[in-house]
Structure formats: C-alpha cells, structure tokens
Specification:
Shape: globular
Distance between the termini: 10 Å
Structural class: alpha/beta
Helix content: 25-40%
Radius of gyration: 20 Å
Number of strands: 18
Bound molecules: nicotinamide-adenine-dinucleotide, zinc ion
Amino acid sequence: MKAVTWHGVHDMRVEEVPDPRIEEPTDIVIRVTSSGLCGSDLHLYETLAAFMEPGDIVGHEPMGVVEAVGSAVTHLDIGDRVVIPFNVSCGHCWMCERQLYSQCETTQNREHGTGASFLGYSKLYGQIPGGQAEYLRVPHGGFGAVKVPHGPPDDRFLFLSDVLPTAWQGVEYADVPDGGTLLVLGAGPIGDMAARVAMHRGVRTIVADLVPERLQRVAGRGAEAIDISRLEGSSLADVVRDETHGRGPDAVIDAVGMEAHGSPVKAVHKMVGLLPDVLAEPLMKAAGMDRLTALHTAFDAVRRGGTVSVSGVYGGAADPMNLMQMFDKQVQVRMGQANVRRWTDDILALLQKDDDVLGVESFATHHLSLDEAPQAYESFQKKEDGAVKIVFRP
Ligand SMILES: NC(=O)c1ccc[n+]([C@@H]2O[C@H](COP(=O)([O-])OP(=O)(O)OC[C@H]3O[C@@H](n4cnc5c(N)ncnc54)[C@H](O)[C@@H]3O)[C@@H](O)[C@H]2O)c1
Ligand SMILES: [Zn+2]
Ligand SMILES: [Zn+2]
C-alpha cells in the first residue's frame, strides 16, 4: 500500500510499504478514506525528530471502512464506517475506567515515561504505524473505533478523531463561568474549533493569532479576533484586559504549543531537531526547549482566580515558567492529550443534527491525495496557500 513516511527533518515521503494485517485479537484493519494533517504532525516534522526512525508511517486522524476484525472484536463488522481516535486505549484498565483514555495503562510507554500510545507518533508514544496511508491496523480498534452512519460526507465525522475532542476537552477544562469570557490563543484547527464549541455554548470568545486568513475564519463565525502582529508595542494581555473590565478573561485556552512564534529560543529549538539522536533525545526530554510565548501570555492574560486550559503540546521538562505569577494569581491549570473516547458520544450526537452547527463540513481548506503529502506538510508548516486544515483522501 501507499503511505506517508518520515525520513528526517522536513523530509516526508510517499512510499510503497507492506499492507497491515490483524496481529492481535483486539485489532481491526480499516481502508482509510480520509486522514487529517495536524499541528501535532508539525512537531514530528522538526522538533521531535530524535524520536523518529526513517520509514515510520505518520498520521493520527483517520477514518474509513472496516476491512478485517480480530477474533475478540464483537461489535464491529466488515463494511462498518468508523472514525479512529488518535489515542490507542484498551477501554478496560484502571485509567480507561476513569475515562482518562490518554493515560491508558495497557498502552502506556513506561520506558519513555509517557502516556497512552498514539497512532503514528514516534517512539515516545509506541511507534505505532499511522493513518496517512491506504490501510491502517488499529490496535485495540474493537474499543477505540467510533462507528458512524453511512451517508454524510467524511468531513462530517472525520474530526472526531482529534480536532473535535481536543477542542471540546479544552473548553470543558477551561470551565468558563456563566456570562464569562474565554481567550483562545491560536486560530489553527484546534483553536478555531475550540472557539466554535465555546460560542455554540454561548461563551463570549476572543481569539488571537497572527495569520490573517485564520483570524478571518474565526471572526466570520462570531469570535472577536486579535492580530498579535499588529499590537504595536502593547502586550496581548493588556489589550484583552482592556476588553474585559481590566481584569482579564475568566479562562484562556493555549491552542498554540511549542511551535509558537515570538520566542528567542526558536533557533535553539530548531537546532535540537537537527542534532544526532543520541544528543538530541536527552536534550529534548530534560532541557527547557519549548517556545513558551503562548503559555506565558496565557498566564499573563488570565484574570486572577481564572483557569488556563492547555491543549497545545509542550515537550521540554525544565522550561522556566513564571511560577511566582502563576501562584500569586491563584490560577488553575488543566492540560493533557485529549481523552478522545470520553467526548465522542456527546459530540457525535451534535454532529448528527441536520444543520452542521459547528461547520465541520466546510472546516477543511484542502483535500489532497497522499502523493501531495510532502508539499502539504511544507505549506501547512509555513502557513502558506491558505492551508488551515488539510485532509488526505488516500
Ligand atoms: N492536547 C491534544 O490532545 C492535542 C491534539 C491535537 C493538537 N494538539 C496541539 O495543539 C496545538 C495546535 O494544533 P493545530 O493543529 O491547531 O496547529 P497549528 O500549528 O495549525 O496552530 C497553531 C496556531 O498558533 C498560532 N500562533 C503561533 N504563535 C502564537 C502566539 N504566540 N500567540 C497566538 N497564536 C500563535 C499559529 O499562527 C497557528 O495558527 C499544537 O501544539 C498541537 O500539537 C494537542
Ligand atoms: Zn492531531
Ligand atoms: Zn486502558
């Protein structure tokens, strides 16, 4: 089959690889019909290179049709239409019983000290072959796969794999009080969708980014958009405070993560991505190598006693954070990979309403073939060509 494979920093290729097969009784195999490209894939493209091996198949936002099921899979049949969560979780361990699916104890990666395995996402998360491919083996697919009805286009359901539950969890964790205000940092797919979910719940939502067409998208759906490249000397936190009775928003979602613009350590960060693995691996894990601009802004902007909800991914272990400010402001922090299956039933019910309230069917800006993947990674990273959400159709 054809698959998108990682070969080095900024080097994605499309190759012929062996078809996947059922390996465990709890597996399923699907024929992939759509597969998203995610901001998290950009971390592999550059920053997390030390944890990748040439030939690793990437992608963690797939959906498709069931081709084969393992002998222990009881509720899925060949031909069912399914969306696959990016978390690989067993559904029955101590963590899964508490719906902390991104912490599944059956698939945790203890040798790296990381949580549940994650499709197509490096040695840190199990090195499971990913879903930007024609076929995909889904470990624990009998539990994970979300069955969706035949009929509507793929994009109605595709974002259940990651964007929707991540945005949903970000908004849940932000816990905005009635009548309150939310600031969303980043208008990429995650920030955009988090803003849509918050506005659907009636929350006043302000979104900040620096890419004009991304800001236009969220403004077009009713968010108050702020272009951080046009602040002319004042800080984003000050501007937002001015809009919120001088206090700041009740909650801030960081939907940016470690690829943030505007931090002086950017060059260092890039350099780590280019080091040989033996040097880069310990550096990435132990040192403070993130670009923390967005996170710092979140703590600065949030009102005293407010909540910071971190959806963006950070990788370093010793980043200097402003602990004095965090403590003094009595801020609550909630974060983590989305527990995808915790939210999918609620979201699916909303998606099955006729009027597409979240606008998912027009959410993707590009539908491309797998052969176009190397170029797609580049334009998504550079935010060129209006690329906000790219979906591959294998
Ligand atoms: N928690 C989870 O389970 C989960 C799931 C999916 C994605 N993520 C993470 O969420 C983050 C966003 O993902 P995405 O797909 O939307 O990616 P993306 O890279 O398209 O979006 C990030 C956006 O942030 C903007 N930005 C950069 N610096 C900024 C700053 N200082 N202030 C405000 N905006 C800034 C960029 O212009 C971009 O539009 C990534 O870190 C990704 O890894 C987390
Ligand atoms: Zn993703
Ligand atoms: Zn589990």
